[in-house]
């Protein structure tokens, strides 16, 4: 099989509700890029690239440009199964993680289709229901509780991530109230988006632990070095990594430093190829992984779910993939099935994703 064409199509789908996190995190829509890789056998692999300028420096326009001007010409006539050679070509250009990640995901979708198996099976796993969590945005406590209970009653979700960091006292109150409302069986963790100082993190998370907090995502800035280890050693719950582990090298650094207890993985920025390397590195150190979201729509949700199921023993926690329901619409022809707190993937080759061309025409931004 040979690659004949690669497309990068910017699109915008509004969210049902504005999502807020951290000091600079506000989204009212999914403004992403659909990536399609065409093979000479008539098959097409798809993926979703996620611009996050404040994290990776990529924009919707820069992703489309780097793919059109550099990556697509470099990969034409290449065999998708020659993954090492393909990544050598991609890595001639530095960084651009989600542009590369989307191409890699689309290639795995293409390979899975060519082999007649799902991506999860292509990676050695199997399709099964994948438990998910739901992210609760910053806001007043009553609104947060209402949102959590609606997600539980509608989709059976019992795992929740609370955005935190701006007001430690309020953060503690949010954890306490959510635990009281949901009971002992609920899975509750926080994401402070690096906003606590080391001492504040130790005090605040110590209090949260009284309400059975499971883990704390990036409570302090990633540049604090050994102060991060101080926090990890002092708090009674594991630190979940995210922005500190965007690459395989960074994962090794944080594990060796002793600054994390759970390796956060986000397939949009590492694709499938490097994600599997990170998973194996974590396994070699006896450390569990967690699948994050990056605010993906349906296409990105399917990709991350397949990776989590492809290495399911490495992922003991609910995947943070329940947030596609916050969008007003999707590009998928068939919606993702979410029930009993879990995603149920379609029994189809590759990612099992099919784009609704009418919806794509409605939401695409390139005319």
What level of helicity do the residues show? 40-55%
Described by the principal axes of the CA atoms, the overall outline is globular
Gyration radius from CA atoms, angstroms = 20 Å
* Strand order, largest beta sheet: 5-6-7-8-9
The count of strands amounts to: 13
Top CATH class of the largest domain: Alpha Beta
Q: What is the domain total for the residues? A: 2
* Structural category: alpha/beta
**Count of DSSP-assigned helices:** 14
Mean pLDDT: 95
Low-pLDDT sequence parts? none
Terminal Cα span: 31 Å
Question: Main beta sheet: strand number and arrangement?
Answer: 5 strands, parallel
CATH topology of the largest domain: TIM Barrel
In CATH, the homologous superfamily of the largest domain goes by the name Enolase-like C-terminal domain
Order of helices and strands: EEEHHHHHEEHEHEHEHEHEHHEHEEH
The share of residues in extended strands comes to 15-25%
Please name the defining characteristics of this protein.
single chain; 367 residues; alpha/beta; Enolase-like, domain 1; TIM Barrel; five-stranded parallel sheet; three-stranded antiparallel sheet; 40% helix; globular
